[in-house]
Write a structure and sequence with these properties.
By secondary structure, this protein is α+β, with helices and mostly antiparallel strands. It folds into two domains: 40 residues, no CATH class; 122 residues, no CATH class. It contains six helices and seven strands. The chain has a seven-stranded antiparallel beta sheet, sandwiched between helices.
């Protein structure tokens, strides 16, 4: 019944408008598949109540030693991961980063996105692996103790990156 109503609504749109609708549905479908994949692994997902607190935690832990002038020069506000791509913070890259993430201990982790105010808290996250994030863009994953971070970007030639705090 609902599909029939959707089909009836879609019949009135031009091909150009349908393309826009397709890409919107595509976005939501990928988000659904991403969350479903994690839930199928037994990972519980919930939205964190204070996302700004977690974004500040990432900034203050992984980019605190980088001056505001340098951050401005590398467009940090546009993409936090520029600290790695501009080599202002040493880190593991590519396959080395994937392997490090795959083997690091992951009990509870945060997942945050560059362009979204939503932060997810993942519990029972031991089964998370780097390939889980291959369809995600500009995503930052880090443990709740902020001892490491894994970053998957939207740029094929940039990342992924893995950084571990030397001593915490």
């Amino acid at each position: 019944m609902l599909r029939k109503k959707i089909d009836e609504m879609l019949d009135c749109y031009s091909d150009k408008e349908l393309e826009e609708i397709y890409w919107a549905i595509h976005y939501y479908h990928n988000a659904f598949l991403f969350r479903k994949n994690l839930q199928d692994k037994g990972i519980s997902l919930s939205e964190y109540d204070d996302p700004q607190e977690i974004m500040d935690l990432w900034d203050n832990t992984f980019a605190h030693q980088i001056s505001e002038a340098v951050k401005k020069s590398i467009y940090y506000e546009q993409f936090r991961w520029h600290i790695f791509s501009y080599e202002k913070q040493s880190c593991m890259k590519n396959d080395e980063a994937r392997k490090a993430f795959d083997f690091v201990e992951k009990n509870e982790v945060f997942i945050m996105y560059q362009k979204s105010p939503t932060v997810l808290l993942c519990k029972n996250a031991q089964q998370l692996v780097s390939t889980d994030f291959d369809s995600e863009q500009d995503v930052y994953v880090f443990d709740t103790d902020a001892t490491w971070t894994y970053v998957h970007t939207h740029e094929e030639m940039c990342g992924p990156y893995f950084y571990q705090v030397k001593s915490k």
